[in-house]
Write a structure and sequence with these properties.
Helices cover 66% and strands 0% of the residues. By secondary structure, it is mostly helical.
Length: 194
């Protein structure tokens, strides 16, 4: 099976499980542990091994001492989901809402100050050079999503993060995020002017 398909399936199962358990003490503990993992490498925190590695397809495990592309993609998506879900009674996962689309949704507050703030957060995401840098910048966006109740497709994010790590595909991912952001942002801005 193609590895990226396994990444999507793994992330889908994990998001659904976290959503299902979010109101339970075990679910809240899993989300809290995942939030503590933000900014760390996959596997760096033993308290996350169970929620992260348990039941993961062995095909996705790294064959070296460094995390695999799949491990990075799922790990960052899970930790960002945990940050986004914190304090929300509704599920923050929304199928079909890409990173670029969600960022553009932040532009609905039509002030120059807001536009600049969103661009300061979104620009570094699409120009990041590696996973730690990308994770740092996505965190800033997710905090804005959380504050403005903007949802995101975390399965799609995992897939995009997987391809981002392939130097031959990175520019495609960045272009896709930027294109969706600009097209949707301009539509929102145009509606403001009319």
């Amino acid at each position: 099976m193609e590895e990226v398909k396994l990444v999507r399936e793994e992330m889908y199962k994990r998001v659904q499980e976290l959503i299902r358990q979010k109101g339970t003490s075990g679910g809240r503990a899993a989300l809290a542990n995942l939030r503590r993992g933000i900014g760390k490498k996959p596997g760096e925190m033993p308290e996350l091994w169970d929620v992260f590695f348990n039941k993961m397809s062995p095909e996705l495990f790294s064959k070296s001492n460094e995390p695999s592309m799949a491990e990075w993609a799922i790990y960052i998506s899970m930790t960002m989901f945990a940050l986004h879900q914190q304090g929300s009674t509704e599920a923050v996962h929304c199928e079909g809402r890409s990173l670029g689309s969600a960022a553009a949704d932040l532009m609905e507050e039509k002030t120059d100050e807001n536009r600049e703030r969103i661009m300061r957060r979104f620009g570094p995401v699409v120009t990041a050079k590696d996973m730690p840098e990308l994770s740092h910048h996505i965190r800033g966006l997710v905090q804005l999503f959380k504050a403005k109740s903007v949802k995101l497709d975390y399965v799609r994010l995992a897939e995009d993060l997987y391809w981002f790590q392939d130097t031959n595909k990175r520019k495609n991912v960045q272009l896709k995020w930027g294109r969706i952001f600009i097209v949707k942002k301009e539509k929102i801005y145009h509606e403001y002017l009319c």
